[in-house]
Amino acid sequence: MMQPLLEQFLGRSHSLFMPDWLRSQPLLQEKIAGSRVLVVGAAGSIGSSFVKQLVPFHPKTLHLVDPAENNLVELVRDLRSSSALIPDHFKTLSIPMGSREFSCFLSSEPEYDYVVNFSALKHVRVERDPYSLMRMLTVNLFALESLLRRLAHSPQTKVFSVSSDKAVNPANLMGAGKALMERLLTSFSDRTPYSTARFANVAFSDGSLLHGFCRRFEKGQPLSAPTDVRRYFISYEESGQLCLLACFLGENREVFIPRMDPSTDLKSFAEIAELFLQAKGFEAKRYDSDRAARAAAISRSADDRSWPCHFSGSDTSGEKPFEEFVGEGERADFDRFDTLGVIAGTLPENNSALAETLARLEEIRHSDLWRVEDMADAIRIAVPELEHRLLDRNLDQKM
Questions:
Q1: Residue 285 and residue 293: Cα distance in Å, rounded?
Q2: How do residues 186-215 score in pLDDT, each as one tens digit?
Q3: CA distance linking residue 329 with residue 221, whole number of Å
Q4: Dist. CA 285–CA 270, nearest whole Å
Q5: Coil, strand or helix: which one is 234?
Q6: Quick check: 356 and 362 in contact, CB under 8 A?
Q7: 287-296: long-range contacts at Cβ-Cβ below 8 A with a sequence spacing of 24 or more?
Q8: What span, in angstroms and rounded, lies between the C-alpha atoms of 168 and 322?
Q9: DSSP labels, 177-211
Q10: How many CA atoms lie within 13 Å of 97's alpha carbon, on the beta-carbon side?
Q11: Residue 138 has pLDDT above 90, yes or no
């Protein structure tokens, strides 16, 4: 996505976090230089941005892990084609976290100073069936639990694992899974310190609806978006900066959040679609149904400067009108940074609810019958604030 186009969507010409980013350069250099860093999920949208902005701080060791081998190759090409000095101890591995290969790899390496985790399935679409949902829980939760059990014997290692604004008052099981992830991290935090970050949608990241606008436009397809769903957006650069600041400057059990104003920063997907078309030199032409929009896309002439769109209210499982960064009972400190808030966590008195949720999910995983409703009930034991509505319609049934 060209920078001027991105600036038009975000409403800013420089990074939201620039004041804190510039002010923190000496401390980041002190924390990162000479350290051993492992980045898991390194080739995704956020992970690759993190890695590119990490390298100039000169870690001694940088190991990148991601099962998406093509994306990992592209990341290495980007790094090797830049002016950044790649560490001598640099290694990439196309393996998934939680696998036997990953475990053997960790056994072959000295302890890391920082283990940074971006490995996750992020789509609300996983709620359409229990098999995709279980895959999400395996990647987002059980693999991390396995890693934390291993790192509990490495007290010098700090963990950063990225969270989401969807973890706050979750309306879908992906968000509830991120809330579970935060609570899992906290349960190990007396042995392994951690910090995390909740943040907005990364504009035009792979697989996102905005990324879909680009692909649909290239293919001559109509655009489709909900009118009643609003989200916060940040750029690739901002996502990497937020995670770097949270990872290396965050204290144990701290959650970093962006300082954003709901009155100005929340944007609907339909609004973004119209801005996207305007930037491309087109005007959105609304149709009452996706069928009519598809027909118009097929018949439109090459010189037509209008673009068929179908915007409608959300009627699928797991959607929430807007996201939040601070949950009930939490307090964000906005005095420490100019552009960030920090939520300080505490060690829970007991982890019985979390342990019961994990045990129930394990029982389901090893049974022969999987149901989304049973998984949701198990998750709700540890995340009682989950307001999950399983509707008859999912995102795969919409244009």
A1: 9
A2: 999 999 999 999 988 888 777 777 888 999
A3: 45
A4: 12
A5: strand
A6: no
A7: 287/222, 290/222, 290/224, 290/398, 290/399, 293/222, 293/224, 293/399, 294/221, 294/222, 294/399, 296/222
A8: 11
A9: HHHHHHHHHHHTTTTS-EEEE---EETT-TTSHHH
A10: 31
A11: yes
Contact 310, 399 (CB under 8 A): yes
Name residue 13's amino acid.
S
Contact 139, 178 (CB under 8 A): no
| Residues 102/139, Cβ–Cβ less than 8 Å | no
Question: Cα-atom radius of gyration of the chain, to the nearest Å?
Answer: 21
How far is CA 286 from its chain centroid? 31
Asked if residue 148 lies in contact with residue 189, where contact means CB atoms within 8 angstroms, the answer is no
DSSP-H helix ranges across the chain? 3-10, 18-23, 25-32, 45-54, 69-80, 100-107, 130-137, 143-151, 173-187, 209-219, 236-249, 262-265, 269-279, 290-299, 352-365, 372-382
Contact, 174 vs 132, CB < 8 A? no
Averaged pLDDT of the chain:
91
Q: Per-residue pLDDT averaged across 332-349, rounded?
A: 92
- What is the C-alpha separation between 161 and 146, in angstroms, rounded? 14
> Do 184 and 147 touch, CB atoms closer than 8 A?
no
Q: How far apart are CA 38 and CA 58, in angstroms?
A: 14
Helix (H) or strand (E) holding 311: strand 306-312
Question: SS3 of 333, please?
Answer: strand
Instruction: Give yes or no for a contact between 36 and 59, defined as CB atoms under 8 angstroms apart.
Output: yes
User: How far apart are the C-alpha atoms of 263 and 241, rounded to whole Å?
Assistant: 24
CA distance 313 to 362: 36
- Tokens 């906290």 correspond to 186
Instruction: List, in order of start, the domains of the chain with CATH numbers.
Output: 16-205+233-264+329-397 (3.40.50.720)
pLDDT by residue (tens digit) across 238-297? 999 999 999 999 999 999 999 998 888 888 889 889 989 998 999 999 999 999 999 999
Q: What is the pTM of this model?
A: 0.89
CB 217 within 8 A of CB 280: yes
Give me the percent of the chain exceeding a pLDDT of 90: 73
Tens digit of each residue's pLDDT (9 = 90 or more) over 54-104 = 999 999 999 999 999 999 999 999 999 998 899 999 999 999 999 999 999
